Amino acid sequence: MTAGSGVFAGTVNNPHNLLQWLRFGLPVEKGVCEDAQYLELASESGDKIDAEFSTITRWHDGSVKWVLVDLVGEMSGAVFLQQTGGSGQGRARQHPASSIEGDFAGEKCRFSLGNDIKAELLISVEGAERRLKLAQNQVERRRLSADYRWVFEVEGIRDLEVSLRVTDVPATGHIELKPRVHNRRASLHPNGCWDLGDPNSLYIDSFSVKVTNPRASDTRLELRDLASHPAFERSYPEGVLVQYGSGGKHWDSPVHVDKNSQSTVPERGFKLFDNEGGHLAQGLRASPLVRFDNPSARRYLIPGHFWENFPSSLEVKARETSWRLFPRETELQPGEAKTWQCDIGFTVPCASFTYDPDYIDHTGVILGRRVVATSELTDLLDNNLSGPGSFKEKREVCDEYGWRNFGELYADHEALNSSDEEIFVSHYNNQYDPILGFSLRYLATGDQRWHQLACDLAQHVVDIDIYKTDQDKAEYNNGLFWHTDHYLPALTATHRTYSKDHQYAYEGHQGGGGPGGQHCYPSGLALRYLLSGDDTFKYAAIGLSQWVRCFYNGSPTVLGRLHRLLTVDLKAGQMTNVGYMEEGYKYPLDRGTGNYLSALIDAFLIEGDGGLLDEMHRIIIETLSPDDDLAARDLANVEEHWFYIVFLQSLARYLLLKEQLEQPDHHYAYARHSFLHYAEWVLKYEETYLSNPDALEFPTDTWAAQDLRKANVLYYGAYFNPARAEAFRRRADLFWDYCVKTLGESPEAHTTRIQAIVAQNLGVREWCLERDSSPYPLMPLEQVRVSKSGIRQRFLRDLRKILRDFSITNEIEWLKGRVSGR
Hints:
This protein is α+β, with helices and mostly antiparallel strands. The chain is 30% helix and 23% strand. The protein has 19 helices and 31 strands.
């Protein structure tokens, strides 16, 4: 790409050619541009597009890798990325500056949004309206937009946090509001159970956003319901709209229960009342917007996912509206949050950006896989976007709606053996990272349905599935909750895996638990950050990497490290809370350690912290070796040790990262020798899992999907070992063909777990087949062998590091977490 010579990057879809604002992340090929201000977008005719660029991440040579694009315009069509060759964005068209301000004097929490429009946050807890006290605020201004964030403490309520994010785009008149509530307390989780009714839950009477527009000469509630028969669109000058339930066939599903297992949904759909309480209308799924007619212009207020996030209420009066996000008493669990979105503007947002998948592949930003990949397995996924068994239809089966559930995936594979007469509630909690899989399918196809699934799920995971507290055990804080326990209904555990009412299923064995390292999937969140610029996803991904570090190493305290020594390090040959420990190694050879390694790769890709590379190397040498006796590691024991394949996938990803960084050093060579040593075992001894069903506790077709991992390890084996490439590819093809045939004939192929595994593992085959081999020669093994530290050496090394930042407060907090009964 040179000055004036653009490359096709994607397409703006603006069906009505209205003035719109778009924000999206865009990758840039390595070495192309050192300063984002010298980038610009052009239409197919060569006209410059009004866009602004800011750097998100950089390549190792300092050039721009990902940029955040703000774009305003009425255009629709192809978009080309090019360099200006001049003074950059300084020549760009200028727009009015953002002038949003907060007013927190007295008892109110108001925001001036311009043109006399004001917003106000209101919250009532424990029977009283509470003052919001400003704790922190920040603003980032750009030429086309400004991003604001205010964080508030709730007076009299410990650890309840309210925040508001506002994005203002003066050039289009668009304003995006994102209010949020967050209970920062820790759960008591007695006996490892996480039911509703925890003593540290907070009960919010109401939480609202009120918007006033004193210049409006007319105010209308525009109400649409496409689910009712017949569908209708109506306009009202005032009213109170209440969405009680989802409006779906299973609106009274047991997914909607309170701490006493009683239904929280009194009615199926919505009702509209006048401001005196008189009945005006009713229906199933309300999609409202509020229209303010000003003397000079018309403005709209659009509550996002109004019916999906029930219960919700919208009150409209002359020149004002109140969106009650929590319209009645609501339990917010410890470590739980909820985010909503509301748009205000001259038009209803309708534009979107679609990436060119060939451009994504050309930049090389996706490690070790092609986005452009067409096969029977991509068809298997894309065909599941609509019709029976689709993700949309799965939501309807158990009514995965309501503020706590919307965006979640229904774990329908868990319900295969349940009675047809009952609704079996089971939540999936992002196992095998469907956020990543859906995002990659979106990049490959441009289908907005994949994009919406990924966005909805990512926001749900960040708000609900991640345990957002710093007040619990280090191995739980900010961790990802497991899916609902296998073959058990969620009951009152919501999205937190284990219920006190599950005890009947354990037959005297210990049940319960908490977030675990074998369920850690930040890659999709990291990609959502790069595609959107929303740092909520960035901090969630980094938070998961920090949590999984604590899970496998213990708290960075003296007491925490001593606890790890006694409960893990000295338990060689035994199962521990982090996995099965083998003599001579610090970490178990399983998917949890693979998740730890992969999480650090994700953190590096969005942070660029070079210290993470050293940590990755330590994980590798403390998990496996190119000199391992593989028979002694019992890899053929499928139920106990199949997870080693997942670690090999993460190890391949590490190798590809080192190649991307152009670092074929000793660390790289050690990891490559280790990978190939284990890949040879896969080549010689691994068979399809279902070829020996007696070795499996539950021989479902999920195992056929897991065989894709073996195919990918073997394809990478061909890439990293050109001398054995033909043998690796031939064996990889056998696994691939088996997966295609078996899943193509499977009645379970539509289930969530199989779909997630397939989506997570596509694109590797195509990436490897278009390359002969790694460009880097491999150092001799003799030059890269390392002498590993023993238990005593590791403990003393870690202790010295901890003592450099010793804090008696941290030691006390660790102790509190252990003696509190948790």
